[in-house]
Write a structure and sequence with these properties.
This protein is mainly alpha-helical. It has eleven helices and no strands. The model has no long low-confidence stretch (mean pLDDT 83).
Length: 261
Amino acid sequence: MSSAVADGRVMAGRYLRHVVRAPEEIVIYFTLPIMFVLVFGYVFGSGMSVPGGGDYREFLIPGVFVMTMLYGIGATATGVSVDLGRGVLDRFRSMPMARSALITGRVAADQARALLETTVLVICGLLVGWQWNLGIGKALAGIGLLLLLRLALSCVGVAFGLVSPNPDTVSMVVFPLAFPLSAISNVFVAPQLMPGWLGTISEWNPISATTTALRELFGNPGLGSDSWPAENALLLAVAWPVLLIAIFGPLAVRLYRNLGR
């Protein structure tokens, strides 16, 4: 057990060193959510309405936090796919190291990266007028929900990276799937303002669940809905990631064990 933990720590360090050596990757993943804050918050914000009233930027920022976690799938899947294509994973499999180290190390590195991204976005949010209003305890609970979601999405990213023939496939598939998932959610617009059927899909979207839970914990506007998903957002914000981990965690382990067969 201690050997597996040590091997996982070594792998996490390897992934984090790659991030430091390729800072342009971090810039790319930071630029998109910051652009959404600026464009939607300042350009379109004056024309956006929030159910129950309130500042649109305070409504928007929790959704941007969640969207950043979602787009992290691309970085995870690309990193795994690159290692697979270069034969790095085959070398790891031939070494006297725990088979779980690849996945645990990747997930641990993703958590460290997610924490860094969240810190930068919190600073960006404070600069544009967002704030948490219910105390530091609930704010930290909201950060915990973000990291739980990122943990689940890391499992999805590892599994996808192990079945992707090359990194180009990741960019062609992950981002076209991630964008509709964030667009058909309550990140930018409240489900109450959407057509009935689309609003229902939006409210059951896992992205919407975590976003609503964050707004509740941060004391931000946008909690006007009385639907079951909205009233039980905290429950769904935990249940959806746990379900994804239960499905894609074992799947990623199985895919890794079956490499080369």
